[in-house]
Amino acid sequence: MQAVAIIGIGQTKIDEQWDKSIRQIAVEAIHAALKDAGRETADGIFVGNMMSGIINSQNNLGPLVAHWAGLKVPAVKVDAACGSGGAALRSGLMAVASGELESALVVGVEKMTDRSPHEVTAALATAADADYEVEMGVTFIGLSALMMRRYMHEYGWKHADFAPFAINAHANALHNPYARLHHKITLDDFEKSVMIATPINLLDASPIGDGAAALYIVPADSVRGRTRILIAGSASATDTIAFHSRREPLFLAAAYQSATEAYRQAGVGPEDIDVFELHDAFTIMSALSLEACGFAERGQSPRLGLDGSLTPTGSIPVMTRGGLKARGHPVGATGVYQVVEVVQQLLGECGETQVPEARIGMAQNIGGSGATIITHILKRE
Amino acid sequence: MQAVAIIGIGQTKIDEQWDKSIRQIAVEAIHAALKDAGRETADGIFVGNMMSGIINSQNNLGPLVAHWAGLKVPAVKVDAACGSGGAALRSGLMAVASGELESALVVGVEKMTDRSPHEVTAALATAADADYEVEMGVTFIGLSALMMRRYMHEYGWKHADFAPFAINAHANALHNPYARLHHKITLDDFEKSVMIATPINLLDASPIGDGAAALYIVPADSVRGRTRILIAGSASATDTIAFHSRREPLFLAAAYQSATEAYRQAGVGPEDIDVFELHDAFTIMSALSLEACGFAERGQSPRLGLDGSLTPTGSIPVMTRGGLKARGHPVGATGVYQVVEVVQQLLGECGETQVPEARIGMAQNIGGSGATIITHILKRE
C-alpha cells in the first residue's frame, strides 16, 4: 500500500438543522474540505452514514451527495452503524492506496432530529442484534447500561467516578464552534442529571444531532515538501454484534485488535499518542476504549479522569474538541469528525484546547456495542 | 493496482425464505464460497445490502454476518441501493488490490419478503430522490414506467417488442436451480399480464426475493499456473439521483462511463464480450443498458431481442441464468449474483444455457434509476 495523506478538512456545526436536508449538510462539509485542500473535484466520494434509509427515507447517498456537490464522480455509501465514518475513511484510503483513485473525498453525514425520540431510539437499536437483543426489548442505551453496571460491580467504582469524562468533554466543547453543546458542567450537575437507563444518566450520554464532516485524501508522495498529515495506521476489527455473546463483556476485543494493528503499522505504542479522539457515546465506552488501547489497566481507567490525565494538558488528552458527549454524535458522521479534530490538533489549530506539541494522534470509532471498531493513527511530518 | 482473481463462488436459491434470518442467508452463501475456494477464512468481509435497516430492523451487517459465519475478521457493509452488490465487490477489490488484505469475501444479501408489498415498495423508493421524486408520490417502478413510455414514444416501439427480454430470461432461468421463477412465458403471457404502472406490466418487472451470493477474491499472482478468473475491469460512475435532472433521460450516462472505463482497463470492446449479465430490473433497463454499453444504437436495442441475439447462442447473450427478471432481484445481492453467474459461464458450468466458448464476460449493476452504475469485466485465463 502506498502512504496516504489528508490535505483538507471540513465540518458543519452539529445542531438541529431543520432548515437543511441531508444532502445540503453533507455538501457543506464537502465544499469546506475542497476549499481547504485547494481542489475543485476528487476522483471519488465515500459517504459514511448509518440511518438515512430509516430516518430520511433516503438511500443511494453516493449519487445524491455527488450530484448536489456538483461532482459527477463515483460515489458510494459505507455503513458500520456508529462506526460508519471510520469505515468510510478506510474505504477511501484503500481506493487511494491501491492507485485506483488519485484523490478521494470522505464525508460522514447524519440527519437525525427530524423524527421523534422513540423513532430515533428504534433506529439506533438497529446497530444491535435485532433477533437476539432488540427483540427482547433492550435499547442501545440499555445495552451500555448493562456494561456500565457490570463494570461498577466488578471494579468497585461509583457513578460519580465517571464524571470527569463528561466534565472534560463539556469544558473542551466550549471552545469548539462546531460543537452542539456549549455549557460547562460540574460534578454536581453530573450527579443530579436525569436518569435514562440505570446507571446511565443524561450526562453520561452523548446527544444526537445533524451534521457532517469531510476529509480530502491523496497519495502522500503527491504532497512531499510541505507539512503533511499522514494516515500512518488504519485498522478495523469486529466482535460479536450481540454483547451477551462475548466471553469478556468488559473488554473491547475489537478495540484492542484494531489499535494493536494500527500501532504496528504506525510503528508507535500508546505512550507515543499525543491526542486520542475516542468514541465516548457513553462514559463507560470511554473507560473501555482507554483500557483496550493500552492507556490503563483493566478496570482502572476512571482514575485517568480523576487525576486529570485526560485534559488537553494531561498525559493522554481525549475529547479535546468536546467528544461525542459535547461536540455531539450524528452517528454516521462521528468517525469523520474525530479524524478532522485530530488533524486540527496536529496542525495546532485548537486554541484553548490545543494539546502542546501534538505530533501523533489517534481516532477510534465504534459501531454497535463494540461490534465494529476502526482505529486510525495520524502523524504530522 | 495488482490484479485480482475470483477463486470461489456461492449462492442461495432466491425465494421467500421465511424460515431463515438475513444472517443465515448470507452465511449460507459465504460458506459455499469458502468451500468452493478451498479456504477456511478470509482477511475481510464486504457485505452488499440495501435495505436491512428498513426491512429487517438490522444495521451493522458486517459483524452480524462475520460472527455468524464463524469469522472474527474486519467486515463492513457497502450500499449503493440496488447496485450494492457491485459496489461491495469494488470495495473488496480495492482492499485486495492495495495489498491491505490478502483475501476477501464479498457477499450480497437481501431479505425482502418479511414485510407487506407496500412496505417493500416504500423501501425500494429510498433508492430514488426522497425530496424531489418520492415526495411527489412516484414509486420506483413509476419512474421506470416514465422512462419506458418516453422510449416507446421517441423510438416508435410497441410494448410487445420488449417481450423477448422477459421470454429469454424465463427460458434461461428454467435451467438455473437458484432462480426464483421456473416457468416459461410466451408473447401472449407477456401481453396479457397484469398492468403495474403503465406501460410496465407484471412480466416487464423483476420479482423481489430473499437470497445471497458470495465471491472469494485474492491477488491474481497467488493463483498462477491454473485456470483463473481475473477481474480485468472494474469501474463505477454516478449520474443525478433524480431522473428528471438528466439532460438525456433515455441515455444511461453512468452505464456508458463505467463500461467505457471497464473496457479500457480490460483492453476490450463490446465486440469482445461473450456474455453480459445486465441489470434487467425492468425490460426498459435492459434496453438502455445494452445501448449505453455499445451493443446497439440508441433506440435500437429491442431489435436485439426480436432477432434472437440475446439468447445463449446469440451474438450477445444476456440474462443467461435468468437475469433479475426470472432468477430474481434481492436488491443488494443482485450485483454479486451477476458476477457469480459470469464466473459460472466462464468456467463452462451452465449446461443448457452455456454460452459456447465464453472467455470474457461482463456484469453491470445499477443503483436507482441509473444513478450509480458499476461494471465488471471478467476474463478466464
Could you please describe the fold and organization of this structure?
The structure is a homodimer of 381-residue chains. By secondary structure, chain A is an alpha/beta fold. The first copy, chain A, has helices spanning 22-37, 52-55, 61-68, 84-97, 117-125, 140-155, 163-173, 187-192, 253-266, 283-292, 302-306, 323-327, 334-346, and strands at residues 4-11, 45-48, 75-79, 104-110, 195-197, 200-201, 211-219, 229-238, 275-277, 360-367, 372-380. Chain A has 2 domains: 4-116 and 209-223, 3-Layer(aba) Sandwich (Peroxisomal Thiolase, Chain A, domain 1); 127-206 and 232-380, Thiolase/Chalcone synthase (Peroxisomal Thiolase, Chain A, domain 1, 3-Layer(aba) Sandwich), CATH 3.40.47.10. In chain A, helix 1 packs across helix 3 and helix 4 (84-97) packs across helix 13. The longest helix of chain A has 16 residues, at 22-37. The mean pLDDT of chain A is 97. Chains A and B meet through helix 3, strand 3, helix 4, helix 5 and strand 8 of A and helix 3, strand 3, helix 4, helix 5 and strand 8 of B.
Give the key terms:
homodimer; 381 residues; alpha/beta; Peroxisomal Thiolase, Chain A, domain 1; nine-stranded mixed sheet; 11 strands; globular
Residue-averaged pLDDT of chain A, rounded? 97
Please report the number of helical segments of chain A: 13
Strand order of the largest sheet of chain A: 3-2-4-7-1-8-11-10-9
CATH class of the largest domain in chain A: Alpha Beta
* String of helices and strands of chain A: EHEHHEHEHHHHEEEEHEHHHHEE
- Domain count of chain A: 2
First-last Cα distance of chain A: 19 Å
Note poorly predicted spans of chain A.
none
> Considering DSSP H and I runs of 4 or more, what fraction of the residues of chain A is helical?
25-40%
Largest interface: A-B, 61 and 61 residues
